[in-house]
Amino acid sequence: MKRYNIAVVGATGVVGSQMLDTLAKRKFPVSKIRPLASKRSVGKKIDFKGRKIKVELLTEDAFCGIDIVLSSAGASLSKRFLPAAVKAGAICIDNTSAYRMDDKVPLVVPEVNPKDIFKNNGIIANPNCSTIQMVVALKPLHDYAKIKRIVVSTYQAVSGAGNPALLQLEKEIALIGPKRGGRIPKKYKPEKFPYQIAYNLIPHIDVFLGNGYTKEEMKMVNETRKIFHDKSIGITATCVRVPVFVSHSEAVNIETRKLLTPAKAKGLLEKSPGIKVIDNLSELKYPMPVDAAGKYDIYVGRIRKDESIKNGLNLWIVSDNLLKGAALNAVQIAELLIKKL
Ligand code: NAP
Ligand code: 3JN
Fold first, then answer.
1. ∠ CA 131-225-201 to the nearest 5 degrees?
2. N or C: which end of the chain has fewer CB within 10 A?
3. Single pTM value for the model
4. Tens of pLDDT, residues 16-27
5. CA 72–ligand 1 middle distance (angstroms)
């Protein structure tokens, strides 16, 4: 079996380390692995399949001999370094927003638009985590009943904002402890989020744009339309950071052109790849972030009719944001690619 030389850009980060772990767990045919990061990490050793491998500096020359790059160190670094990787002959799977809306770059979720992978010029973009879990769950419903409009509210785990965000939540929980009220001392300065996140919610992810939405909210709108190849879907999003370590949750309301009953939706979801339905109200079974953490599937529950309109449905969608929302989706793209390489 052919084996591939893989570079992981941002290998010491929350997403990069999940990429290495996912490559190993899924037995991706790796020949050589090259973990790349900043000068802060050069020489540190990371574990890959029980071997200790030295982290190298991310430079334009780091891609010599590399077949596939999995990139996750931020959009500006992807813009700066991926062209050099493509020039060196590598194919790049980019997990940042750098190229997602570029017309020449496919934006791919393997369960939704796998064929788009092959229309690439060396770079394939991985969507935002909140988009990925929503489009996987909505794809079978869209195919059957054609979605007219989506209203989504997200409940996003702190791990979506990287290691500094996880450290902030841990520090605040330790500082406040189990006290009722849960206010952080006034002199405390949060390091990652603008406010305390422990025992709190922050309705603000990524920067605010001129239209009153955040960039995270507009990513969900624009990326969903691109992945579905459907500019006509109305989409509105509210993205909220919650004090959960791993797994994003989403309350999603859809309006469809054709009637879609909850029973029909449940049947369609149950037979779709990558989805598990957990929806048994008498036994209090519904998806929750702690149960989805560490798992590959997307969990859907609370499937019910929106009684305020003719063709409306409500769903609750939960998924591990670091796996299907980031590392797993990227590795699945690589798995599809090597079938044709
Ligand atoms: P993180 O835990 O803060 O890790 C950041 C990684 O980038 C580390 O490996 C860091 O290396 C590396 N890095 C930072 N500055 C660098 C530089 N100047 N040169 C080389 N490497 C550098 O963040 P994360 O959560 O893993 O997220 C990283 C990026 O992934 C995000 O900025 C975002 O673009 C993308 N992301 C995508 C999704 C998604 O929805 N698909 C979700 C989360 C994140 P050091 O350890 O050496 O500093
Ligand atoms: O906050 C989250 O839950 C997901 C964050 C994703 C993210 C964080 C920093 C920069 C992204 C992304 O994937 O869109 C980016 C970015 O690449 O712009």
1. 35
2. N
3. 0.98
4. 999 999 999 999
5. 5
